[in-house]
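I am writing to request your help with a piece of structural work I have in hand. A protein sequence and the structure tokens that stand for its backbone fold form the material at issue. Please examine both parts with care and let me know of anything in them that strikes you as inconsistent. The record follows directly beneath this note.
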Amino acid sequence: MTTPDTPTLLEFPCDFPLKIMGARCDDYAQAVLEVVLRHCPDYDATGMEMRPSAKGTYLSLTCTVRATSKTQLDALYHELTAHPLVKVVL
């Protein structure tokens, strides 16, 4: 587990891509966007990339956020991974 004091190789602020995968359903992209905006209010939703899986069961979303700190990224990652519609965050 990382703490706010854990060293990071990232230099802030920086653009940081997050790949978020979950079951393809009507509310999935909007739910992910709401979480991202809570942590990165200046995120431009038009930059969200969507890619369905080969069978169309899952949807991968890529959101490149402007990260300002490790604490911000950690909080965003934890909220996304705890969301019931999200399966994996990379």
